[in-house]
């Protein structure tokens, strides 16, 4: 049985099933880091050269996870919590 640990710097997650291409070869990335990467990528300029994306992914894998203070939130997640469907619940 092999333990597939997330290759992101400092990430403690194991049992990753997703591989991502970086300049250093394919690396394992856990779901949490992948979601974070997707959020980050949403802020990247578009279009981008494929090699620049690989470069940016490599940089991401070498960056530590963002840590939030007590009253700090991820704006993208916060927006989700601030919205609801238009149903009138009286
Ligand atoms: Zn991870």
Note down, in words, how this protein is organized:
The protein is built from three helices and two strands, in the order ββααα. It has a two-stranded antiparallel sheet. The mean pLDDT is 90. It has a domain at 18-78. The longest helix is centred in the middle third of the chain and has 12 residues, at 50-61. The protein has helices at 31-41, 50-61, 75-82; strands at 18-22, 25-29. By secondary structure, it is α+β, with helices and mostly antiparallel strands.
For the termini, the CA-CA separation is 54 Å
Question: What bound compounds does this protein have?
Answer: zinc ion
- The helix-and-strand class reads alpha+beta
Computed CA radius of gyration, to the nearest angstrom: 16 Å
Could you name the key traits of this structure?
two-stranded antiparallel ribbon; 90 residues; alpha+beta; 3 helices; binds zinc ion; globular
């Amino acid at each position: 049985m092999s333990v597939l640990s997330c290759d992101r710097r400092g990430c403690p997650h194991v049992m990753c099933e997703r591989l991502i291409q970086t300049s250093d070869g394919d690396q394992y990335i856990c779901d949490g880091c992948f979601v974070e990467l997707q959020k980050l990528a949403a802020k990247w300029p578009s279009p981008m050269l494929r090699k620049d994306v690989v470069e940016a992914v490599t940089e991401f894998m070498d960056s530590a996870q963002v840590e939030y203070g007590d009253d700090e939130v991820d704006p993208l997640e916060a927006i989700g919590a601030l919205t609801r469907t238009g149903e009138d619940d009286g």
